[in-house]
Amino acid sequence: MNIQNYINGEFVNPVSNNWLDNYNPSNGEVYSQIPNSSSEDVANAYKSAAEAFPKWSNSTLEERSRILIKISELLESNLERFAMAESKDNGKPLSLAREIDIPRAASNFRFFGNAITQFASESHESVGLNAVNFTLRQPIGVVGCISPWNLPLYLFTWKIAPAIAAGNCVVAKPSEVTPMTAYLLGEICTEAGLPKGVLNIVHGLGTTTGQAIVEHPNIKAISFTGGTETGAHIARVAAPMFKKLSLELGGKNPNIIFADCDYENMLATTVRSSFANQGQICLCGSRIFVEEAIFEKFKKDFVQKVKQLKVGHPSDKNTNIGALVSKSHLEKVENYVKIAEDEGGKILCGGLEVTIEGFENGYYMQPTIIEIETNQCRINQEEVFGPVVTIMSFKTDEEALQLANDVKYGLSATLWTNNLNRTMQFSKQLQTGIVWVNTWMLRDLRTPFGGAKESGVGREGGFEALRFFTEPKNVCIKY
Ligand code: TXE
After folding, report:
1. 247: exposed, middle or buried (C-beta count within 10 Å: 0-12, 13-18, 19+)?
2. Does pTM top 0.85 for this prediction?
């Protein structure tokens, strides 16, 4: 089948009629073709968005809210279809797509459909000067949204929903590795009555289609989630045009475990925070630091639990770990296991590819735990983004904090302790955008989301996202 671009409310082929293969990671077969869109397609998408902007930006908040909530309802009523498409395209367990990815995509639209009706701006009375200032928040115009392959529809809609809620029109590109649910979203938007041109979806490679979005002189803001190197490149291209940027990039997140934690809860959650979605979540805790007093016990229990995880076909209901997203990504992750071994890391379990009967060409790998002696090794300093975690012990709070912060990334951290004083000390001193205490990936969509250091700039989520997608203007009225 052919996936098409969605421009001005219509499904269209790429102008050049060039196509790319789309692979099913569970069996390694090509199962669809996607447009290899050029700057011409991006220009068409921009034109359609620019034409839709005057009317959409003047639509009432009730109107926008109604349409966003309708999109959310349609995603919910098409849950099974979308979950199956996501699982097939990405390799993730169907159960995960059904329980997390698609419901969250629906929540994104519902949340921002409601949030926009509550969004307000500030006013300041200039006392003694007989003047009043207020902040007019206006949509930016046409904005670009570029998303990755790990949580395809979840992250695509996390950007699109606030952008259109705030009155912008959008040119969006999903990852070329996982285009399917973005394609299906076009149909839903039309059915929900989203006016033509408000959302335009172009498919293609990052270096051509994505680059064309970033280079387009009139696309004034870019919201991007992806790798740190790509983010740095986008920042360089966008800077001379003074574009507004929100960059959500890689992570190398510490999971710090103290002996005084609720052990069973910590153990079960740590299995999830290590290997959910095959470890391909920017928030996964890939560096596990354990207080010396419980290190040996934790090591034994963790290895035992992880060995029970079933690697299998994504649609098998017993599968805990599906396929990695692509062959090249599997090779990257395997290469990191070799690097870790060369650096003296000890593989406690996993490390090998898995062959699933009937799906021998799929991209499967065992969940892998590596014991290391120092944080200063490549496996602990570089983002692997697969089912691989390291463990290492520490003695004191100071040492744990130093290890946690000793990395160029700063997306999230997880802390396991029942000590309130320690909780506050770590919360203040961890150099990350998110700190989870005694939990992981508990998301409240009102909270600011994003990273410090090389994990990005800007925050998404809640009113932060609505602020990003609007331009504040100071209006000063003298009376
Ligand atoms: O990401 P890319 P890749 C990390 C992870 C992974 C590495 C590389 O470590 O192994 O990044 O993954 C588009 N202009 N993360 O190569 O290339 C691209 O088409 C404009 C962490 O798959 O960053 C896709 O839509 N766009 C991450 C999107 O950027 C460009 C999730 C992300 O792809 C572009 C994914 C360009 N020049 C990977 N080049 C997270 N933070 O969750 C690429 N793209």
Report:
1. buried
2. yes
